Amino acid sequence: MFAQDFAIYGAERRGAPVTAFVRLSDSPILERGYIFNPGYVLVTEPSLLFDPTVKPLEGMEEGSVLFVNSSKEVRIIPSRRVRLLQRDITGLALKHIGRDVLSAAMGAVACKLSGLISIRSVIESVEEELAELGLEQDAIEKNVQLAKECYFTVESTGLRSTSHMPPHRVVDVQYLGEKGVPDLLSTGNSILRKTGSWRVFTPIVRNELCTACGICYTSCPEGCISLDERGYPAIDYDHCKGCMVCATECPRKAISVEREAPWS
Ligand code: SF4
Ligand code: SF4
């Protein structure tokens, strides 16, 4: 088959949402734009289901498959024509490699869902890609084991073909002043953008251990920590991205790391 893949990175920082696309076809692929009507949508973090800039559910059509990585029941009602599957892929990643790095895992899930790609090809791809990145053999082997478990934990849904070309979309930018550039008013460009929705792990300050030294306050790369009138830290969870720099830097280990629970 012919294949094409590309990604939109948006904010250039670790933990920020990435939207990535793959096209497969029996014939050469001439279309270059977004995939507006995907056969499959894989969501690596349930909070992204409602992200106003990612909009992963948009464009899903009858027969398309929505796979969500979640440790808890996904309480959304997609169109009844969309097939919803979910597994705790982050839990498997933590088990095999000790980190929520999901590339090999979600790739294996996608391959299995499509029914097109064998486990042998998945393993060869993971080994090849990670070796090219310079990973140690031990880390590669852990990722292979993760990919294998992910592959066998989901069922194949069979290939779903979307063949029609999408309508062209026009973005109407606004010029409110005399400037030569448009004004950016969308929530994706201001404090109204709740970047905390990207978080997988949540830092929790345990006041009984905290000495109010303020180190976490100065360490947070996002400026998400403020100090109350007594000098104790308060975390702005609307914008905390879950990088855990604060927990690492805290000399008292007063910040615990909790798995995010978006559905509770
Ligand atoms: S995890 Fe800690 S350091 Fe990272 S963004 Fe959140 S509050 Fe800041
Ligand atoms: S670094 Fe740790 S001890 Fe210091 S203020 Fe932050 S939570 Fe408290």
Automatic annotation (TrEMBL):
Pfam families: Fer4_7, POR. Transmembrane segments: none annotated. The keyword Membrane does not apply. Keywords: 4Fe-4S, Electron transport, Iron, Iron-sulfur, Metal-binding, Oxidoreductase, Repeat, Transport. It comes from the Archaea. Residues 201-230, 231-260 form the 4Fe-4S ferredoxin-type domain. This is 4Fe-4S ferredoxin-type domain-containing protein. It comes from Candidatus Terraquivivens tikiterensis. The lineage of its organism: Archaea, Nitrososphaerota, Candidatus Wolframiiraptoraceae, Candidatus Terraquivivens.
